[in-house]
Amino acid sequence: MPCDRVTRRGFLAGSACGMFSLATLRLPAELSALPVLEVEAQVSGNERRYPLPTADGATVDRASQVILVRYAGHVYAMSLVCPHENAAVRWLAQDGRFQCSKHTSRYTPDGTFTSGRATRNMDRFPLHRDGAQIVVTIDRVYQSDKDPDGWNAATVNA
Ligand code: FES
Fold first, then answer.
1. Which one, out of 21, 22, 43, 110, has a CA that is 20 to 30 A from the CA of 55?
2. Based on the structure, what is the number of domains in the chain?
3. d(CA 85, CA 90)
4. Is the CB of 93 under 6 A from ligand 1?
């Protein structure tokens, strides 16, 4: 089944890239003991499918600019792009948060803005669970300042 094949390949790619990811990404303190993997999505139109995270941590899909975070019983799909001026957002293990690489806006692990030049939280993609997969729709995002209810609802229970 293509889905399973892609999923396994994604997991293998994640394993293969895990060392690279650990060297280049930084985890929030709450997640610092957990793996950060890069993964390939199963691509179908505007949908990206990922294995349901089985433990707290992050999965990065650089090709689609999506980061999946499982944290505190929830899974989120957030944009890797800072909502201020579209720079990359990174994990900072020593501080337990995301931080923008350009103007250092700060965000909690669930994408909540805490300080800096940005004026809203990290954007979240719509997502839903389909069995053992998370399906993310990447042609739209919820912006916390324009659609706070949508932004808050853009999560699934882990
Ligand atoms: S681009 Fe991220 S704070 Fe400016």
1. 43
2. 1
3. 14
4. no
